[in-house]
Amino acid sequence: MIVVFDLDGTLIDSAADIHAAVNHVLAENSVPPLPLTAVRSFIGEGTRVLMQRVIAAVGADPALLEPWHTSFLAEYERNPAVRTTVFPGVREALAQLRDRGARLGLCTNKPARATGLLLEALDLAVFDQVTAGDTLAERKPSPLPVLHTIDVLGGGEAVFIGDSEIDARAAEAGRIPFGIFTGGYAREDLDMFPSRFHFSDWADLPALINPAFVDPATSPA
């Protein structure tokens, strides 16, 4: 069994550190800061799209995208996990899935370097395959990154776990069974997308993927 996960808004709440890096760039350019709620709504389609949305939100010249994006990445890579938290129960669920023989993949639109730094800082470097936003020519919502992750892990039965419409569109386009974490960064009603299950508590995930993954010692009699 292969289980592929999104990162931001699914395994971790990273919005505060992304917000801090965005406002660092704005301060460098004498632009007033953006609120956390605005920056959170920009997350999901990679850092370049994030900064395109920032530039549009503050009314800056679109020609600033390259220098602002470079500055954002430099600041974010310096401080990837100051305020970022792992959602409760994530580590335990990942360990339980691995113990039951699941192959774990990560498919994120975040660049590979930032992803690696973040996983190491949060002690989440447990994945058998990491497909980042710059691994392939396409990013989610294209299904190719998720399908690539599954293929590298050997193919076969798989499920993709995500939190947003970006993840849902990738799963739907690739005809990949999809599980929705409801505590993330979705901007749209995810009920409009096909899914195998929804969950808000990570302790529930192993059994939702496969009842055989439940630890008998923790199951009700």
TrEMBL record:
Q: Which GO terms describe its biological process?
A: carbohydrate metabolic process; DNA repair; glycolate biosynthetic process
Q: What keywords sit in the KW lines?
A: Carbohydrate metabolism, Hydrolase, Magnesium, Metal-binding
Q: Name one GO molecular function term.
A: metal ion binding
Question: EC number(s)?
Answer: 3.1.3.18
Q: What class of enzyme is it?
A: hydrolase
> Which pathway does this chain act in?
Organic acid metabolism; glycolate biosynthesis; glycolate from 2-phosphoglycolate: step 1/1
Superkingdom, taxonomy of origin: Bacteria
The active site is formed by 6
Which Gene Ontology cellular component terms are annotated? cytosol
Q: Which Pfam families match?
A: Hydrolase
What reaction(s) does this enzyme catalyze?
2-phosphoglycolate + H2O = glycolate + phosphate
Cofactor(s), by name: Mg(2+)
Which residues of the sequence carry a binding annotation for Mg(2+)? 6, 8, 163
What family is reported? Belongs to the HAD-like hydrolase superfamily. CbbY/CbbZ/Gph/YieH family.
In terms of PANTHER family, this protein maps to:
PHOSPHOGLYCOLATE PHOSPHATASE
What's its job? Specifically catalyzes the dephosphorylation of 2-phosphoglycolate. Is involved in the dissimilation of the intracellular 2-phosphoglycolate formed during the DNA repair of 3'-phosphoglycolate ends, a major class of DNA lesions induced by oxidative stress.
Name of the featured protein: Phosphoglycolate phosphatase
